[in-house]
Amino acid sequence: MERSGNMKKDLKQTIFETVGSLRNLFEQLQASRDSKSQTITDLEGRVSTMKAKLDACRVDTGKVHREPSVSTTQ
Hints:
Layout: H1 2-66
């Protein structure tokens, strides 16, 4: 009878430790997810900025190539 009580106690302790470990791991996963989400948001913003700069450069380059030469020959 005493042995059965000790086994129940050990099992209960193991369950509590396992649940505690799972909670800690879950919190770490959530923190990692939040960090990754923030990184993705930052990178998407940088990509948008770079696309806008690239479009502006393309417009400027197009204007330069379309303007006729103003030099005169004598």
